[in-house]
Every structure is written in C-alpha cells, then in structure tokens.
Amino acid sequence: MEKHAGLILPEPQISLKTLFEGALHPAWAWHFLTSSTISFPDIGPADQRSLDVLPEMFDGTISWEDLAWIRRIWDGPIALKGVTTVGQASQAVDHGLDAVIVSNHGGRQLDRLPATIDVLAEIVDAVGDRTEVLVDSGFRRGSDITTALALGAKAVLLGRAHLYGLAAAGEAGVRHCVDILSRELRMTMQLCAATSIAELDRSLVQRDSGAPAAHT
C-alpha cells in the first residue's frame, strides 16, 4: 500500500476466519474475488472509485492559507469542521468563515482528544458573537442535544443515529430515529421547564466533579 504523510496503510490479510466468513456469505465473497477494485460509490468518478484514491483524500499539506484561498474564490457560506480549541475557532473567524463545527470526528483519529461537550462553552464564549458554533461527536440522545443547545451551540449535528435507522429499515428507519430524538428533546425541555429552545441556558447544566461530560 502506498506510503503517504509518513504512514503506510496495511495490506489486507486473509486468514482462516476470513475464509469462514466468506463461506457464510458466498455471493459477497464471489463479488469481492471477481472485482478488480474495491468500489466506493460516493468517492470520485465511476472509473476512480477504489482504494487508490484514498491517499489523495488525506493531504497533510493543507493549511490556513488554503482556507484563505477558498474564501477568495467562494462567496457562499463556509463552515470549518474539526475545531476543538479556542485558537482554532478564532483563526477560522479571522479567515472569514461563517461557522465552526466543534468536532473531534467521533474521537476516531486520536483517542486523547477532548470530548466536544467539554470545550463547547469556551469556544462559544470566544467566538459565538462573531460566527455560528455547531457541534457533533458522541451525541446519541435528545438530552445530549438539549445540553449542547444550553451551552450555546446553534445546532447539533448527528449522523450515526440516522445511519443506524437507515441500515435497519431504510427511509422509515431514519424517520423513526428522528422522531425518537425529537421526543427525547421535547421531554428533556419539559423536565427543565423550558418552553422553547431560546429558554435553554447554562443554568440548566450541572457538571459532576470528575465526570467527563455535562448532564442536563
């Protein structure tokens, strides 16, 4: 596998477990063995949807100067995802971005990154009057959404919950997940005596000493 930015992606290893799994799923195994490339339908044109394009998607040379260039050629709204510090948020605002998304990408890249709920309030305090602050990573319940809104987030982004619903029951599953989150959000607001999103504030959030996350 090609070396990129100092890293080498591992080659897939075929083991006895792999062969056993393949025997349990013969149609998939046949398709895998007879396909020349592994296809990713949402990546690039049809003739380039394979593992070969993945190294190009992780460019370690991207810098703040690239954001300045994007801002010059694009007059629409731009949101920067992956912000976890006040410094990053401030630089994003200085480069003319319209929103920042407080996100550690689910903690998959570096498990020592702070939970986004732990850094949200200070980022809102630093730049919330100059740009919109959104948040994601680890939000699974309506009460989680309520907490983030109370801490100052303009919106909470969720993806995994919708994917679970999609995998289980297609479009109906996604609608069901949205309904669950909506009901939980409304119930939490009712228990907090908040009749609107605007009434959610930090007085409703209490942090246990030593606890890793805020609770509503």
From TrEMBL:
- Homology family: Belongs to the FMN-dependent alpha-hydroxy acid dehydrogenase family.
One Pfam family cited in the UniProt record for this chain: FMN_dh
Record protein name field? FMN hydroxy acid dehydrogenase domain-containing protein
Residues in FMN hydroxy acid dehydrogenase domain copies: 1-210
Q: Which InterPro entries match?
A: Aldolase_TIM, Alpha-hydoxy_acid_DH_FMN, FMN-dep_DH, FMN_HAD, FMN_hydac_DH_AS
Q: Which organism is it from?
A: Catenulispora subtropica
Transmembrane regions:
none
Lineage from the top down? Answer: Bacteria, Bacillati, Actinomycetota, Actinomycetes, Catenulisporales
Leader sequence segment:
none
Cited CDD domains: alpha_hydroxyacid_oxid_FMN
Query: What SUPFAM superfamilies does the entry give?
Result: FMN-linked oxidoreductases
Keyword list (alphabetical) reads:
Flavoprotein, FMN, Oxidoreductase
Q: Which cofactor does it need?
A: FMN
